[in-house]
Design the sequence.
């Protein structure tokens, strides 16, 4: 695999550093991947069934491993602050707004 050979170049000397860099909870999964080949050859069903990785982390890891194969070094992307409310809070806000509109 092209991406695997490229992996040891630069600041990414291990899968743990790679997962810590992409963030979003993936740093907790460093013990699940043995080496670069294991990280880059794992597909969605393998990550789900054998490694027990959740959907959001699976999609995030697969996206970044693909970008890394294409030559894009991973970087941290913070989550949006816009949608930080819980579902219950959003529903309560909607109810309040509807109550105001009806008056």
Sequence:
């Amino acid at each position: 695999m092209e991406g695997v050979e490229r992996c040891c170049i630069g600041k990414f000397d291990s899968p743990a550093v790679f997962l810590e860099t992409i963030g979003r909870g993936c740093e907790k999964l460093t013990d699940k991947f043995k080496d670069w080949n294991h990280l880059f050859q794992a597909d969605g069903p393998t990550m789900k069934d054998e490694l027990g990785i959740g959907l959001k982390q699976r999609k995030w890891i697969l996206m970044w491993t693909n970008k890394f194969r294409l030559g894009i070094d991973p970087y941290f992307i913070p989550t949006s602050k816009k949608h930080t409310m819980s579902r219950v809070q959003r529903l309560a806000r909607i109810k309040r707004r509807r109550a105001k509109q009806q008056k």
Notes: The chain has a mean pLDDT of 81.
